[in-house]
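Quick log. Single chain, no ligands specified.
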Amino acid sequence: MQDMIGRKESCASGQLPMTSPSSLFYALEEWTVVEFLKTYLFYVIIGSLTISAILVFFIVPLTIVFFIYLSNILLLIYQRNNELEADPLSDVWNRVRKTIATFWDIYARIWHGYELHGVENIPQGPGLLVFYHGATPVDYIYFTARLHIMKKRYCHVVADHFVFRLPGFRILLDVFGVIHGPKEACVRTLEMGQLLAIAPGGVREALFSDEMYTILWSDRKGFAQVAIDAKVPIIPMFTQNVREGFRTLGGIKILRSLYERTRLPVVPLYGGFPVKLRTFIGEPIPYEPNMTAEELAAKTKAAVQALIEKHQKIPGNIFRALMERFRTQKKED
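-> predicted structure:
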């Protein structure tokens, strides 16, 4: 009995008598675990943090999609509870429209410290807002929500055809006046006295522009012809740091080639960073009957470029944009 106790004590004290196989196994196991931790623990921690960061960068953008679907569900509930069959653009939807706008405005204030400047440049009547397209249209969502709260107006917007093929979005698109064209529909909207927004760069600009904020409009001038036909002013618009909130992997050539062949937004997004976002609305470009569509398109592009140069530090920097949450001064006031 005493011999057994002695052997157990020797194991506990770290001594390794050759007559005790259990003590040998215990010591070997202890040595192996310690050496493993000493050798690989650093790499395990770094690997775990890297994987977590990747998941966050790619999953956070999905929260925007989730909130959009949540808005759509709220509209469906409102429609069913009130047994609505009215035109989605009619005033009977104003109550739920304001509720959704308030939700997005609160989110914009909390996550991006969102600000809207130059609202006084929006005419009382119809007008065509032309803006630079970020990696996501989240800045436009913030803008139209704030506009609805401040001025009790909503702005129609032209979206790419693929948006209308997404499942479960239909009622949301209808209630907030999202259209896919054609030119006649755009002109008709403006002739009805409404505001209309267009990003001439579209999906291509969203996916393949970068932190240099290069405008990718090619030779598009259809939007200018819409303004001429409707006899309305064009109002340039730009959101500061919109490229720092969300980024794309548009620099990968194979993804650019795939998009050009399919016209599908196959480029992955990442980010969702809580950077400072400020939307600036420039002075209107008035309707001039003698101006051609080419001239008006060039003038509009120059106006948007001027807003970028005035309010955006180039190249864009995510850390700087984050720090701007704690500053009140813009690039140039």
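The domain at 94-326 is CATH 3.40.1130 (Glycerol-3-phosphate (1)-acyltransferase).
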